[in-house]
Write the structure tokens for this entry.
Amino acid sequence: MKRLVGNAVFTALLGMATLGASAGMSLAQAATVRDDVPSTYVVVRGDTLWDISGRFLREPWLWPEVWRANPQIKNPHLIYPGDRISLYYENGEPRLRLERGQGGVVKLSPQIRKIPKREAVQPIPLEKISAFLKEHRVIDPALLADAPYIVAGDDTRLISGAGDTIYARGNWSSNDTYSVYRKGQRYLDPDTQEFLGLEMISIGDIKLERREGDIGVLRVLSANREILNGDLLLPADGGAITTSFQPQPPEEDVGGVILAAPDGLRNIGRNDIVALNRGSREGIQPGYVFGIERRGETITDPVTGEPITLPGEEGGLVMVFRIYDKVSYALVMQAGRPLSVGDKLLEPHG
């Protein structure tokens, strides 16, 4: 997990936040400076690039257009806690300056120790996304036709956990490690009723010890909940995320709605994860940022008695981080009020 997140941070930051130093950088014309923009901001632990950009810009997803590299700073593509970002104006043009925070060697008697290597600011909460993808994936049910499935636990127990021996039956591949999955939601398009994919929820990881015919003897390596008879085995997905995305508005209107909240949330807020009914088939790419229009409330006309639906209103922003053929997962970056399943995808606005 640490290696995965580290690689994602470094590569994503390369694309998202190439910083400049003493000479400063002119803000991209497409990006609008906030009315309440601070003159200076000191980066703190826990900040993300989205958080920082939102302090300066009305459109945080335009962060990549704001920064430009400058060779005067070592690793200018990384921002660290303690770094100071300042806004100033040159010839009437707003510019940003980066000043590095303090770091290096701290001497402690009777020996010399180095402080741990500083961790760069993440573009978005990568650990949360990686943990989610470790436990969720979307598949075509056809993949389950020959998948092995749990038939019994040690001493024929119905429930198993870490360290237990379990037995499974099916067609085995060359893999000796598998993830245990349970079926989740069947994703259906709310307008066309087209089947979009089957959500699979990871229960744990197991290792194949030996086989006798189509029966496998396996050891449970880890489990985040009880493993039950009938649970399915698939090659581990690993929860890897693309390491080259950067925030950008979609190239064209693709329509779509919030299809589901995989964790079953009714009131969806910032840093929650949602499923969208759009995927690679519609040209969705990692890093796409969508505005969300909250559905208008349906009320009864006090004069005619007819049901009417009030106009929708802007509700927040989501960023896509994992794409399947007909479905995508996105992280809620902003939400002024709770979002809901069925809310519409729009072009983002600051």
